[in-house]
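User: Could you walk me through two proteins back to back? I'd like the raw sequence and the structure tokens for each, with a short line separating them so I can tell where one ends and the next begins.

Assistant: Of course. Protein one, sequence then structure:
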Amino acid sequence: MGETVGHFRTSFLPLTQTFIYQYLTHHERYEPFVCALSSENRDVFDFEPREVFLDLPRWSPRFWVYGSLAKLGIRGIENTYYQRILDRRDPDIVHAHFGPMGVKLVPHRTNDRQLVTSFYGYDASQLVDSNPEYRTKYEELFDHGDLFLVEGPAMREKVVALGCPKSKLAIQRIAIDTTRIEPRFPQDDGPMQVLMVGRFVEKKGMPDGIKAFASVFEGKAAELRIVGGEADEYTREDLGRVAADCNVENQVTFTGFLEYDQYLREVRTCDVLLAPSKRAESGDSEGGAPTVLLEAQASGKPVVATTHADIPYVIEDGKTGVLAAPGDISGLAAALERCVNDRERMARMGQVGVERMEQRHDVRVLAEQLEERYDGIR
């Protein structure tokens, strides 16, 4: 490896952000490091070198000085800890993950150190709606940053609307490691198993998904498995009440959050993935398309989803899945019926999905593309 790239994230790393880890671990020509304020899921995302502020020894003077300055609002971490890491490691590229991190790193961009910022969703929707001052902050970011990445055309339009020059903006697809996923196409017989995955937040549309499942499968040999957990919007009890009101409480199984390999087993053993995403009342929306849609297709599974955000960019309606309008429960139910009434069609969709993921979302191809983008701003 020759040049270096520092990946900056507030916390390294939430289980829902495997897409960052995929790129990080597949660099070929750029030597990467991670810088963050805190650690989580270290046993899952075991990567070095990492620079994490809260991992500093408590006897370290820097820990207390930097923390006190930030707490008192005198000098932020970006002007103390981040500055120290950048001075010591001196990367050629600084890659900020999420818009607010890009804002913090603007002062550290130099003629010899380019700034790349990836937008993922809430940072270009809910955050701006709830905190309008970010529009002004983003103006400075767009002026000084060198490259801005999004995962699809719908997200691109959101970032352009915030003032990002089109000349600085590029689509960088979400990457998955297809070698870790063994396809298993839907079976011709046996009970139908439908899977939903995600945090219990409004934009994931899980109440809609439960109602659509009930409309098709109430009292039939079918199970809806829900992988994920609470995130301060819905509780498991909330979703359980929806299932009970629809008379499918005995057909719905909650697994909680799972380790990545366990989650992949759930994807591999389901018959169809259900992803009823929509825009939340708060303005929160999918940044592009949930990663599970890619991993389901790589697993050979058809997807029933909505036309929300960049989902139509990764699911071809009628070819790798069936799409309905966001919030359209009857449309989701009809899409489920179209799939489950023709098992051969489900298998064909699965086969096309596997091919598409290998061609368009494999991390080895996309990591090379990302490094070529870095080259282009050097």
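----
Protein two, same layout:
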Amino acid sequence: MSNTFFPTAGEIAHLGVVQTSGSSTIEDAIVMMESNNLSDIIYEVEQGHAIFTVEDLIKYRRHGHSMSAQLKSLKPHLLVYVREDENVLHLLPFFNSKDNRYLGVKNAAGELHGIVSYTDVLASVDPAVMMEHKTLAEVLEKGRVETISGSALTETVLDQLIYPEDAVLIAEQGQLAGIVTTKDIIRMIRDHVDMSQPIRCHMTTPVWTINCNETIKAAIEHLKVRKFKRAIVVDNENKVIGVITQQELISITYGRWAELMKLHAHELGELVQVLETNNNKLRQESLTDALTGVGNRRMINQAIEAEIGRYYRQERSAFSLLLLDIDHFKKINDTHGHPFGDEVLKSLCLTVKKRLRATDTLARWGGEEFAVLLPAASLSAATNLANHIREDIENNKIPAESSVTVSIGTAEYRRGESLEILLQRVDKALYQAKQNGRNTVIPADD
């Protein structure tokens, strides 16, 4: 274990890394991933190790590449390494790049010891999870443990037990022989036992103990399962080294956490900044289409809902929505391949953006469909803009090797309608545009 309350990379790493050589094929990697229930596979490259993810597999297959290609022929996502003794507080900055989903953990000999994910690091700085890493030996204040002889009179024990957590340990010939708790006292009083008898006659035996090398979490679970109020902690020679209650276990954990807040104030301040930066980054990524860089359906839905709210709060003029679809996009993919189709999507976004205002919002609705939110735009203005966009796309020949056209539906928001109704109307207008021969603009019915 580390000498700090924060675990090290080695302590939270997933061991037994499944890895292969760079000469393995994509097909080999798939078999290894499936048989080991993994979503990633590590393989060796000249620079060290690289990682092949399920996302890589999906993209690779989508682009129609051969599954017999060797892993070393791919552009590698190199595994970033950290030392196994590296404190987890220092690991988060390594995850700033979205390609760094995992870190390789090297042992003292420089060998790959395990893998650590971003989730592992975040979980390890949770005080509740820390209970899984800290042992009783590390938190227990060792001292002389009071015991009494089994020959002591039962009556004398009564005075030593007041609170429910209290317990008296009974020793015979230097060995732990039994325990007396307040629960035992209740039983003895109920049964009218002879209090002048030796305590060995009425003690509970054998005594359940827990080894000092067990974790705090294991100790708490030990108490819960057996419905005990305290744990009797023993060393490897089965000698009692302490007694600790469940309340004390939790108090120690959170007490140490509070101390560390002060001790590592600077590091934790940096940690919070990294978390906030990563959180903002992840939030932005969740609203962005990865291929085109424009917004996604979730983002445009949020933008439309916000615009509806402003429409009523500020009595703003109506806004409009465009929904456009690339004509015969499947044929483009089938004829020229998916990479070519991806370029069509990206080029289309650049063309559309040139016609938009700073207040307008472009988003990929899904597949080859795109939506454009136009604040303070009437239906006629939106339809006029849609026609300009349609002409630009047709005339720009995106990309140069192919003539691309789009069909567009337009709709103006109506007072009182929901987001769903607005989307249904503009979708119906788009459908009519495609039914009318494509490469045309149809406004929604009033």
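The two ends are 71 Å apart (CA to CA).

Let me know if you want the two compared in more detail.
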